[in-house]
Write a structure and sequence with these properties.
This protein is mainly alpha-helical and about 500 residues long. The protein has 21 helices and no strands. It has helices spanning about 1-10, 15-25, 30-35, 40-65, 75-100, 105-115, 130-160, 190-215, 220-235, 250-260, 285-310, 320-335, 345-355, 360-370, 380-400, 420-440, 445-460, 465, 480-495, 495-505, 505-510. Helix 3 packs antiparallel against helix 7 (about 130-160) and helix 17 runs parallel beside helix 19. The longest helix has 29 residues, at about 130-160.
Length: about 500
Amino acid sequence: MKRQNYMRTELLHLPLFLQLFGIGAFSMLVPAFHGLVVRDHDAARAFFYAALLGLIGFLMMAVVLNGKRPKSSALGPLLSLFSAFVCLPVFFAIPFIEALPTTRFLNAYFEMVSAMTTTGATMFQDPERLGGTLHLWRAQVGWMGGLLMWVAASAILAPLHLGGFEVTAQAEPGHQYSGSARAAPIDPHLRVLRSTRALAPIYTGLTLLLWLLLLGGGDSPLTALCHAMSVLATSGISPIGGVQNAPIGVTGEAVMLLFMLFALSRLTFSKDTITATQGGLLTDPEFRIGLFVVAAVPVFLFMRHFIGAYNVAAMENLSQAGYALWGSVFTVLSFLTTTGFVSEHWVTAQGWSGLNTPGLILMGLSLIGGGVATTAGGVKLLRVFALYLNGRREMERLVHPNSVSGAGAAGRRLQSNGAFIAWIFFMLFAMSLAAIMLALSLTGSTFEEALVLSIASLSTTGPLTQFAADTPIRLIELSGAAKGILCAAMVLGRLETLAIIALLTPDLWRA
């Protein structure tokens, strides 16, 4: 018993990146088993050998580091998180390129970075080019990336007041709050372990439940599993080219819509961070703003199509109007949570009125993003709420210059300069967007392509490349430099600019 506790303690104090490497190597046994079951022996061997190689390397490094506990640094886990998004896809791409030798390693690396950051952009527009095992691996990597962000939000980003927590924090972004001098700092590795134990069962249970519901709705086991993992991770990865090609219909899409709500607010699945409120989910500003957007934007689109249908005398088809409204609701929530799935009735809205839905709306929804400490990307609803409160307060002061702010419970969650920090993030986000657009333009992309690609990568909403432009963008035709830029942009969008800046602070290197 003492020996088991000792080994568990030693594994706990291994570097976080090494732990993630070992978990990633072990997870390759899942697609290896799938390839064996479906008789795709080439893919099964590729994943089994890669898993074996990775586990041997993990054990060798664990033996070398045995007894050498890493220094307890505030920003050390953040550096490990950054390394995981940059370096782990290199290892994940090895079995991918072995199972699909007709593509380049850069394409395989792009696929793994896209999956790991829950972006979901793919080089292969024809899903039949990839076997079922590779589709499973893409969805599985995206699912693990989503779980990693759940854990990292409460164990790494929240203590450092990053990832949206800086709006409610009482300390500067990248620094831990030391309000209680008596409170001893918690070891970062222990904090990661506690968060994993608390969140992994919830994340896994929700995925299995959605898989069973989609399976009962008519999806094949592989398709249902990939879609379930993609919804929870907001990766938008599909083995059949999207939900619009699935046989689940409106009922299945309604089930998926309910599970997408978990990306609107952390309070839908946990109360372990400082964003929790005493009033519960109904008083959470992120959830309320998300529901408002999901209700307002489809109504706007519906009225726009309604006017178009009135002009072409198509109003008598009420059932088509209902399907058009549902298609707008599902697609709006999907892109707001940066999932990127499109309803099978999304095209119905355009056919009903004869009008094309502008891709700018989808890009705007993706830029807003979901809730803080969820798998969704974008600038986050909490920052939008902070700017909304500040704007409303400034308008009140125009009427009553000497008034005193009476912010409610939701407003009291924000620190005094929360709107200022949120505005700084918006400016950093805009500057990052402009820089990536300029870099892509220098590689030969047109303005429209550069805009769509930049927003898709920074907001981690890969399906924008297929639905936001007039014609789908073929990523595989981009130059090697453009693919490298997009990989860097996806990592930047997943970790956010403030976290990257925090990595450059002297505190990290002094530890």
